[in-house]
Design a protein that fits this description.
191 residues, alpha+beta, 2 domains, 5-stranded antiparallel sheet, two-stranded antiparallel ribbon, 5 helices, 9 strands
Length: 191
Amino acid sequence: MKPPDLVANCQLPGLGRIAEGQATLPPQSPARRLKLFIRRRLSPRHERQFKRRSNDLLNGLGRLSGRPERPQVLPTGDPPLQLHAGDWVRVRSRAEIDATLDHWRQLRGCTFMPEMAPYCGTTQRVLKPLERFVDERDLRVKMCRAVVLLDGVICQGTADFGRCDRACALFWRVEWLEKLDPSSVSGSTGG
């Protein structure tokens, strides 16, 4: 039998201990604790309202101190880029992506995780467009638009929680990608 501390490190066997607050978790910053509190205590609708209002508040405070505003939601102008399975894309630079993010590091509800930064500036292939997914927070199927999965681009774990072997696909907003002409791609990724 495994020692109890090791059991908590595996997602399924440790779920009960984690839910009961008995699992040992890595130290968390105050910002991370606030995010977890909001996510665990508010419904998704109330979470969106809270984030929208707090983004407006932080923008107001930023105006007073002369800092640039973070977007609430990018203005809708051109229709979103249409990407299909097999299309080649370049992931935009970190600075270009950061310019699209609000104070919660999100664009239209999709978070840009720090673990996605190494892919900035690389050439990738679209695995498939994402139209729906199961949100494990509230066990509902959610619909989405202008989000794609990239072939072989998966999460290896996070700075907050460490290594994870689950291999979840990362969600990419099409605004963070630039479609490439297939003739200009040599067939290799990570370029």
